Amino acid sequence: MKAIKVCVEVVTLLAFAASVASAGSVTFSSTDVPKTIVDNYAQGFTSTLNVPTSIQITDVNLVFNKLLHTSVTDLHIELTSPLGTTVVLVKAWNEGGILKNLGTPDNFIGVVFDDQATKNLRDGGSPDTPSSYYIFPGSYNINDASVVPNPLATFNGQDAMGTWTLHVSDRAIGDVGTLQDWSLRFAVPVPEPTSLSLLGIGVLGLLAHIWRSRVPMRFSDG
Ligand SMILES: [Ca+2]
Ligand SMILES: [Ca+2]
Asked: How confident is the model at residue 206 (pLDDT cuts 50, 70, 90)?
């Protein structure tokens, strides 16, 4: 029984260690979707997202969990922080944007705008076939001459708490869609040294427990 108990404790401790190791970002999702993307309508629409806690921004990624559109090259996308800073992230093809001259790729599904991504959004398209042409799920930087370098880094140093506004508009006639689900993912500090110390104390305690447990077990087994 003691062996089982120790096993349970080891698993519990490993699970805790894994959760500490995976800490590093927190994600908030919009709740006012879906929104219709009206065709060729520069005024577009806004969708908001609330961040309820204070986070000093060191990195923010924009996550399109599901944006359905028959040509994402039509889209002009801006993001405004709670402090009122507006950044143009993507311009439409006919504004000279990042996806110009790429045809009509569909959808952002599982597409993340991330300044640190090695792949550029322009290189995210699937093979262009008559039946299917879309943007692969994945993380992409959106660096392009049509916008400022590393546009999302503009928000670094601000407090994330408050209402964020995503402004999307369709700038070319023909293709349309809907924004179904989007999120913001913020980097958060790695665990404090005190947390790691507590983890270390936990490991030492567990080892001591195992050591104490093994002695009577050895004799009872004999
Ligand atoms: Ca990033
Ligand atoms: Ca359109």
From this structure: low
Q: How far is the CA of 154 from the centre of ligand 2 (A)?
A: 28
Question: pTM of the entire structure?
Answer: 0.77
Condensed to tens digits (0 to 9), the pLDDT of residues 5-32 reads 544 454 444 444 433 434 599 999 999 9
Architecture, CATH, for domain 23-192: Sandwich (2.60)
Q: What are the residue ranges spanned by the domains of the chain?
A: 23-192
Q: Which two tokens stand for residue 219?
A: 């004799």
Q: What is the Å distance from ligand 1's center to 68 Cα?
A: 23
- Could you give phi then psi for residue 207, rounded to 5 degrees? -60, -40
Task: Please state, as a whole number, how many other Cβ atoms lie within 10 Å of the Cβ of residue 202.
Answer: 15
Which residues share a beta bridge with 106?
134
Residue 202 β-bridge partners: none
Q: How far is the CA of 61 from the centre of ligand 2 (A)?
A: 25
What is the CA(115)–ligand 1 centre distance, in A?
Answer: 5
Cα-to-centroid distance, 100 and ligand 2 (Å): 14
Which ligand is closest to the CA of 74, given by its number? 2
Confidence of residue 81 (pLDDT cuts 50, 70, 90): very high
